[in-house]
Write a structure and sequence with these properties.
With 635 residues, this protein is α+β, with helices and mostly antiparallel strands. Among the domains are: 4-101 and 103-143, Glutathione S-transferase Yfyf (Class Pi), Chain A, domain 2; 178-240, no CATH class. The chain is built from 24 helices and eleven strands. It has helices at 22-41, 49-76, 80-101, 104-115, 124-139, 146-175, 191-203, 215-224, 228-239, 253-269, 275-279, 288-302, 307-318, 418-435, 457-463, 469-475, 487-496, 501-518, 528-539, 555-558, 568-586, 591-602, 610-618, 625-630; strands spanning 179-181, 209-211, 321-325, 335-342, 348-359, 369-374, 377-379, 388-390, 393-400, 404-405, 411-412. The strands form four sheets. Strands 3-4-5-9-6 form a five-stranded mixed sheet, sandwiched between helices. Strands 1-2 form a two-stranded antiparallel ribbon. β4 and β5 form a beta hairpin. α1 runs parallel beside α3 (80-101) and α13 packs across α16. The longest helix has 30 residues, at 146-175. 40% of the residues are buried.
């Protein structure tokens, strides 16, 4: 059997990968990584940055790429067979990476590198990568001994298992719900949604309209349906996903408690007072207290108060070209593109490539995200004297309503709401950060090595263009007439943009404060709901019903890497609003401003502190004034 996960081709063969390929691939790749580790810690590899990278990073990246490919498919094309194979091997991969990060021999090798005179002569990107490596050894338990080290490893394995179970429960609760509504109940809902839900019901030999909890159906029904009882039914189902109000085998209550207990224990083993303190070590914010003060200050101030078009904007601002490309994909709706730049001497230079997976479907995790396929890297080659440049590749995943096949067989194009467009711009901002980097050190190229509370800067920055008439008028078209968005309608949208912005800010503050409190207060695992109620009493002016269990599907903090870091959305929003203010001051399509943003933010990646990159672009530290003005809360 030819195993596509063992291929050394530049791109994964997604169409060929099957669940039965996973275990044999890991049976081959894990021993190679083990052998590379043993070689790296041995006397034959010098305590020198380049030598360590050549010996260790290539086999590790090959293992990581294969496992990331499996993880991506598990998120966007989930099947019982794939889930079983993924879960069966999750512990093996987790155990290896935990052991790698805590290997005392490798840590000693890196300490020797860091203390050598040659360390001061490393290029800035490598110095930053080395500093991150030393920090990460400490956070991975490299200085723990005896039972503490054994317990730390067991915690990492259990956390990975619990996070996966949490995600599966949310996915299954979302996919497993259906409500069949009559035509009368659907009064007020847009025609395209009615047609889509009627088609879905008919496909199951059901009368009426099939309503689900996926965003392309849930949001328009909640926003436009005139039937209040229908909205109530759908809201109750959405707000209680994966909770005690549903099937017991999908209830995340016990998982949340155990996740918080284990995170607190992990922090204690590493010498921190709480997981909140541990989480902030690689971030811009300095302490949980600083985060809480920022959020409460924001709450105090808030309380009173299409694809071609996107590509053209990016090409104009950043002097690049986006072209269709070809590669094996996991679904026939997925598209593949390349980003190029003209060389001064002529010819196109490949900067990066990306997969675009825009539409919702069963077996696909809800939400939208950007993920890494591979990073930019001067890849060492033991057989050659020079390294080979590896260009970055990204996944851009959304869950928009898909094109609809009408009764006459004609395919009606997918209709994107303005919120969909904002989401697309957001994820493309992440993609640009990953793909336009000019840093050749993998550990700090693109989004790698960027402080977690600054990684949302480019994505939220891109959202602002969705509110510019000069941009929106170019990328909108009526599905039938082809006419662009009427200016009066845009003016009404703009006037409504900040409607309830204070409430939305308070909602984000509520989530972020809860996140920080449950990760810093010792008794939090046993009183999650009580803490939620306290936070709502403090900041909320429109509390949800008592049955609301949003935390049971709050994957960001329980399974998505934002634990004790959800505040970063508002933190980065401050940075992005101030960055976009430069375009407002100098011209939305000002090429010089665009080049400065590309050079100082996008190309720099994680090769220097995010604050240094921001100041290099803006000429000063960020100010909260632009954020308040953008959200209509200035003055």
């Amino acid at each position: 059997m030819t195993n596509p996960l063992l291929s050394t081709a530049a791109l994964p063969d997604f169409a060929a990968i099957r669940p039965e390929h996973i275990e044999p691939a890991l049976n081959a790749l894990l021993p190679l990584a083990e052998a590379a580790l043993e070689r790296a810690v041995g006397a034959q590899v010098a305590a020198e940055y380049g030598a360590l990278s050549a010996a260790l990073d290539v086999p590790l990246e090959r293992l990581n790429c294969a496992w990331q490919t499996v993880g991506h498919l598990n998120a966007v094309a989930n099947t019982p067979e794939l889930r079983e194979a993924y879960n069966a091997n999750l512990a093996r991969v987790t155990e290896f990476h935990t052991r790698l990060g805590a290997d005392e021999r490798l840590y000693d090798k890196y300490k020797a590198v860091a203390s050598s005179p040659a360390a001061a002569r490393l290029v800035p990107a490598r110095r930053q990568a080395l500093a991150h490596a030393m920090r990460d050894f400490l956070l991975s338990g490299a200085e723990l001994q005896g039972q503490a080290k054994i317990r730390f490893a067991a915690i990492q394995e259990r956390l990975a298992e619990l996070g996966q179970q949490f995600s599966e429960h949310v996915l299954d609760a979302t996919d497993g719900y259906a409500l069949y509504a009559s035509a009368e109940q659907m009064a007020g809902v847009p025609d395209d949604v009615c047609q889509q839900t009627r088609t879905s019901a008919a496909a199951e030999d059901q009368a009426g309209h099939k309503l689900t909890l996926h965003m392309p159906v849930y949001l328009p029904v909640m926003q436009y349906a005139l039937d209040r009882s229908l909205r109530e039914q759908l809201y109750h189902a959405y707000a209680t996903r994966a909770s005690e109000f549903g099937p017991a085998d999908r209830d995340n209550s016990a998982l949340m408690t155990e996740l918080l207990q284990l995170r607190a224990e992990e922090a204690g083993l590493l010498g921190y007072g709480s997981y909140g303190e541990l989480s902030l070590v690689p971030k811009m914010a300095e302490s949980p207290q600083q985060v809480s003060s920022f959020l409460r200050d924001l709450a105090r101030r808030a309380r009173p108060h299409a694809l071609d078009g996107l590509f053209k904007l990016v090409e104009t601002l950043f002097e690049v070209q986006i072209r269709p490309d070809s590669a094996p994909v996991w679904h026939d709706s997925v598209r593949f593109y390349r980003i190029e730049r003209e060389r001064p001497q002529g010819g196109a230079e490949l900067l990066g490539q990306f997969y675009l997976d825009p539409y919702a479907r069963p077996g696909k995790r809800p939400g939208a995200w950007m993920d890494v396929v591979r990073s930019r890297w001067q890849r060492p080659d033991p057989q050659q004297t020079t390294a080979t440049l590896q260009t970055p590749v990204a996944h851009l995943v959304c869950n928009f309503s898909s094109p609809l096949v009408q009764p006459d067989g004609q395919v009606r194009p997918a209709l994107l709401t303005h919120d969909d467009v904002v989401t697309l711009f957001h994820e493309f901002g992440h993609g640009l950060h990953h793909m336009l980097t000019q840093v050749d050190e993998m550990a700090v190229a693109g989004i790698s090595g960027v402080e977690w509370d600054a990684v949302e800067l480019p994505s939220q920055f891109m959202e602002n263009f969705c509110w510019e008439w000069s941009v929106l008028s170019r990328l909108t078209a009526h599905v039938d007439s082809g006419e662009s968005l009427p200016r009066p309608l845009f003016d009404r949208m703009l006037a409504a943009r900040n409607f309830q912005s204070g409430l939305q800010t308070l909602r984000q503050v509520e989530f972020a404060l809860l996140d920080m409190r449950i990760h810093t207060e010792p008794d939090a695992p046993a009183r999650i709901q009580a803490l939620i109620d306290q936070v709502r009493d403090e900041v909320s002016v429109n509390p949800p019903p008592a049955f609301n269990r949003f935390q049971h599907s709050f994957s960001h903090i329980f399974a998505g890497g934002y634990s004790a870091g959800y505040y970063s959305y508002k933190w980065a929003e401050l940075l992005s609003a101030d960055a976009f203010a430069a375009f407002e001051e100098e011209g939305v399509f000002n090429a010089e401003t665009g080049q400065r943003f590309r050079r100082e933010i996008l190309e720099a990646g994680g090769s220097r502190p995010a604050m240094d990159s921001f100041k290099a672009f803006r000429g000063r530290e960020p100010s909260i004034d632009a954020l308040l003005r953008h959200q209509g809360m200035a003055g």
